[in-house]
Design a protein that fits this description.
A hairpin with a 4-residue loop joins strand 14 and strand 15. The protein has helices at residues 33-43, 53-64, 72-88, 118-121, 127-144, 162-178, 196-202, 218-224, 234-244, 264-272, 342-357, 410-420, 434-437, 442-449, 459-475, and strands spanning 2-3, 7-12, 17-22, 28-32, 68-69, 92-98, 148-154, 182-189, 207-213, 249-256, 280-287, 303-304, 307-308, 378-381, 386-388, 402-403. Helix 5 packs parallel to helix 6 and helix 11 (342-357) runs parallel beside helix 15 (459-475). The chain has two domains: 2-70, no CATH class; 91-461, Alpha-Beta Barrel (TIM Barrel), CATH 3.20.20. By secondary structure, it is of the alpha/beta class. Bound molecules: iron/sulfur cluster (SF4) (2 copies).
């Protein structure tokens, strides 16, 4: 018997107690310091026979919650089963459909959108392709027989292709209904074209939530997410949110960098003061990546404390933009901080606390993975019907894994085989966070390190978040 590899702990000195969490079982306990010491004694070689009766009883309880494991080998085997079960789970079929790569915003940090002639060239899904998507989805649903289907509309700006969005929602709902499965529709949008009509049209087909991005307070957002002519978009988005509030769940996302992070408390105060504040389900902010070699439209490149920030637009290993999906929502699937330095780790913690202070729900910063990249039955479908392993890899055909027609070029098979073996956590040694991290965001690893197989590690961020979680549990919040 030994203490589990996946135990993490936070001392609660004012109470002479310790918060214990096991990241594999998700058990969370507050125990006396003696009990925590007992785990250390086990690791130090103390055998069960050397323990007092009450200590053995405590060990039994710890064992029941996964804090004590028979051996490292067994625990490693359990971890492998955990990832395998996660990967092969058929209870939910997840489909992310990029209805278009066009966008009506000209965001400061994004290569796509309304810059130069991007929109003229960007692909938009046709109704014919949408029909093929429906046929493909029907086969998948028949094969997997999932309890639910999560259909996420994404882009570009998905509301720029309403006919395809409505068609897919209605047809997939029919198919799911006929097989007793629940359809959950999510829309990730910049919010400019979000109207009650759009929401009313989707609600009967299982609209689950709308996620809208606000990049700071009014002034900051208008600077970061303007229209092509430079007009601000904040007021219109807030008006739109007010009109759809109460009809569906709303969540707010936001992208921050060194210049904009300080504007977020003002944004949170503003949101709290709105009539629709209580209709906001979640608020999650994440950093913008910038890369010194990749030139955003304004040719603005930031360096923070000597560290580079990578552009939010996905870039390949050489800093070349992938030209694919808007990265506004990377991490939405299951999620990752996708950050790149300790500066960002600190700011993430700051924004998380500011968000909670105003009564909004947000990610706890500990349960960050594994993300949907590690799920076999999570598919991202590009506007032409090409398949990707996750939304972050869209747009670069060299990273697609096949097509909804079943066609698979030899190079796509090679990419697909690579994702089949994808297990960045295997390079994470004895890290206790592996079950709730999975090695981080592989898109970030691809962009930052040029190696998607490598872990993208932000352990210090998780450690800080763990302290916050411990305090919350201890206070009974
Ligand atoms: S690899 Fe990154 S972008 Fe892709 S699903 Fe995971 S967290 Fe999101
Ligand atoms: S990426 Fe870092 S935090 Fe995540 S499992 Fe690996 S070592 Fe741990």
């Amino acid at each position: 018997m030994q203490a589990s590899l996946f135990n993490v702990r936070v001392p609660l000195p004012d109470r002479s107690e310790v918060f214990l969490m096991n990241t594999l079982t998700d058990a969370q306990l507050i125990v006396s310091e003696d009990v925590a010491t007992l785990l250390d004694r086990l690791d130090g070689g103390t055998s069960l026979g050397d323990l007092e009766a009450d200590e053995r009883e405590a060990i039994d309880t710890l064992h029941a919650h996964g804090f004590v494991a028979p051996s490292r080998e067994e625990e490693r085997a359990t971890l492998d089963r955990f990832f395998s079960d996660f990967r092969e789970d058929t209870s939910q079929l997840r489909l992310t459909v990029l209805t278009t790569l066009q966008c009506n915003f000209a965001c400061d940090y994004c290569f796509q959108g309304d810059h130069a002639d991007y929109n003229a060239k960007a692909t938009k899904m046709s109704l014919q392709t949408a029909e093929r998507v429906v046929a493909w989805a029907e086969t998948k649903i028949d094969t997997l027989q999932p309890k639910s289907v999560a259909l996420t509309f994404f882009g570009g700006e998905p509301l720029l292709n309403l006919p395809v969005m409505y068609y897919l929602a209605e047809r997939v709902w029919d198919i799911a209904q006929a097989r007793g499965a629940t359809l959950l529709i999510n829309v990730i949008t910049n919010g400019l074209l979000l109207t009650p009509e759009v929401v009313d049209r989707l609600v009967p087909y299982g609209l689950n939530g709308i996620k809208v991005t606000l990049d700071g307070d009014r002034e900051t957002h208008n600077r970061m997410r303007p229209l092509r002519g430079g007009q601000g978009t904040f007021d219109k988005i807030i008006r739109n949110l007010g009109q759809v509030a109460g009809k569906c769940r709303i969540s707010i996302g936001g992208n921050f960098d060194a210049d904009t992070v300080d504007s977020y408390p003002a944004l949170l105060d503003f949101l709290r003061s709105q009539d629709f504040a209580d209709d906001i389900g979640r608020v999650n902010f994440k950093p913008v990546f910038r890369d010194r070699d990749a030139q955003p439209p304004t040719a603005r490149v930031d360096h923070v404390g000597g560290r580079r920030m990578i552009p939010l637009a996905a870039v390949d290993g050489h800093g070349k933009p992938l030209g694919g999906t808007c990265m506004t929502s990377v991490g939405a699937g299951g999620s990752s901080p996708c950050d790149s330095c300790h500066f960002v780790d600190e700011q993430l913690s700051f924004l998380r606390e500011e968000t909670k202070k105003r009564g909004f729900r947000t990610k706890d910063g500990v349960h960050m993975g594994p993300c949907e990249l590690h799920k076999r039955h999570a598919y991202t479908i590009g506007p032409s019907g090409e398949l990707y392993s996750c939304p972050g890899f869209t747009g670069d055909p060299t990273l697609s894994v096949g097509d909804i027609d079943g066609r698979q070029q030899p190079w796509q098979r090679a990419v697909s085989d690579r994702f089949e073996q994808h297990a960045p956590w295997k390079a994470c040694g004895d890290c206790s966070f592996i079950p709730v991290c999975g090695g981080g965001c592989s898109v970030a690893a691809h962009a930052e390190l040029g190696d998607m197989s490598a872990p993208s590690c932000h352990k210090s961020s998780m450690e800080t978040a763990l302290v916050s979680l411990a305090q919350e549990v201890a206070s009974g919040a």
